[in-house]
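#help-structures
NK: newbie question, is this the right format to request a structure? protein is Reverse transcriptase Ty1/copia-type domain-containing protein
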Amino acid sequence: MARSMLKAKNMPTKFWGEAVSTAVYILNVCPTKAVLNCTPFEAWRKKTPSVGHMKVFGCIAYTLVNLRTKLEDKAEKCIFVGYSTQSKAYRLYNPLTEKIIISRNVIFDEDAEWNWDQNAQQEVPTPRVVSLEEQSSPQLTPTASNHSSPPTTSSSSSSDESSESDTSSSDQPRKVRSLIDIYESCDFAFIVTEPADYQEAATCVEWTQAMKEEINAIEKNKTWELVNLPKEKNVIGLKWVYRTKYNSDGSISKHKARLVAKGYAQQEGVDYEETFSPVARFETVRIVLALAAQWKLPVYQLDVKSAFLNGDLLEEVFVHQPPGFVKKGEEEKVYRLKKALYGLKQAPRAWYSKIDTFFCTSGFQKSDNEPTLYVKKEGMEFLVVCLYVDDIIFFSSSQSMLTSFKDSMTNQFEMTDLGMLQYFLGLEVKQGKEGTFLCQKRYALNLLKRFHMEACETIATPMNASEKLQKNDGTEEADVTLYRSMVGGLNYLTHSRPDLAYCVSIVSRYMQRPTKQHLGAARRILRYVAGTLEFGIWYSSVKDFKLRGYSDSDWAGCVDDRKSMSGSVFDLGSGAVTWSSKKQETIALSSSEAEYVAAGSAAKQALWISKLLTDLGCMQTESVELWCDNKSAIAMARNPAYHSRTKHIDVQYHFIRQLVANGRISLRFCGTEWQNADLFTKALNHAKHYHFVKRIGMIKLGSRGGVENNPT
């Protein structure tokens, strides 16, 4: 059947895959004796299939061009090659660009076919004269209250659109782009050109040099020694991993080649014992940035070159010689490791032990509440260091302490001084005299490109306020891999986007068996992200500097099990530093109980933040304000006599009573219109959504003026 389809339109055999896929699609909607003279589709779906949309394979098709100018063609000529498995759309092949397009807006000429005998020359677009305004550095534009009102994104309706965009193609005509956009596009293109193995990398000068630098670093650090393999000893293989490092503006920073051990071949108890190694929480990073902004101190960054190579091994480990760097005449020998290599299961633990010992012997005090946070005091001056594997961010009230710290680190390890903090774990940090702006614009752009939604229509809110998602919604099952990848990418975006926390928490519930409706909800979030790329958190110096929190719940909000949603958010006077949106573990019998449980969870977070601030030299002398909009929940926390109403609640949530009794937590009542945690418990309409977005310290990055890189 597939062969006949190809021959009917004189199509090349390279389209055999598309032909087979289309043939299978057709057979599934045709009657067959195998399922009692009905169609496989009908046997599976329990309904008669529709065939009105089916077209002749290989015919000419014209698809609508989005984002075109008035003088450009409205449609492009393509070839119909099948049906989309993700939506009610068609698969089209453009012979000029040699790309597959997924589109619903298509006009077919089923009698026509492409002339494959004639060498089709790719059309060269007429050059356009574009007047570009002088590019200027971005500006932080908060209002007098340190927060600016988020702009309204374009949308024709606040209702959800669960279907795909009409056209999904990477070669659609684009609007005039800035230089930053062009850099980011180049960045995305370069990602896929990284070598897959040594043979491919050896053909490139940059990657060859990067491998030599890695070997030199290993030998300089005295990581291994060449020996004969002892009898009955396990030997581990090595492989090269290649990554292109980028600057915050998207330009290439360097080509990095990493020699990695095949740790999966290690045996527990023989090649390694301990493997755990802590890293800084993103909450801690935000608190550090907020404190630095409050004290108007710049934050700097250091990068430890080949950090894991500094970790001392306690076990005896042997590895093969690396590909491309085998010693001539000694091919049978192996390396015995003295220090750790990337890929070894104990490598992170060995590195953390090394750097932790160095800090503790250099006068630093390790935080009891964050094992990767260190503070050093000299009289009235202080130095704060936060560690995330090999990335170090730090700030100090003393220039001499900064210089001394950099010198000591450089003497002990091979370091790269990255200057003022600009890019850290996907977070873009812009420091200025007035404050610090934290966002993930570049990551969000790449996320949209990954799912072909960079040209999608934007929407004003991330979730439809009138829609309730549930497990069994009656719609078709969606692609599990696509859905999990999409939700996972959105989850990482919440590190600087608290406005996404609730909706991402909701769509994360359906990772096991997502439906088309769930996928549509995730796509809606991406549409919201596309319209709010410039959004981020603003930290600044304020007079009313203290820890305050907001706690709220949505009683029985989950349609599937009727459990409630807990939401909380904490700030230090400016932007939010921690937030949470999580379904409660037990079923609450009333809204008061749900609010009480939510307040108990928020109280634990408040206690941790308070202790962390104390470790940083910012002790909270007053009780932490925790605002709640339910008077009954406040009464239950203050009055232990409410036994009959609270005896069935888990003991862990009664912890808040002790904190209220000893003055650690001060429960306050606030009206719903001032309840910032409302953003983390339910989907809101346009007006309420942006009201709370502004209240938690989110602003939009300005497009004019400049941000000084040196705020001093």
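mod (FA): yep, format's fine, and the tokens are attached above. The first strand starts at residue 59 and ends at 64.
NK: thank you!
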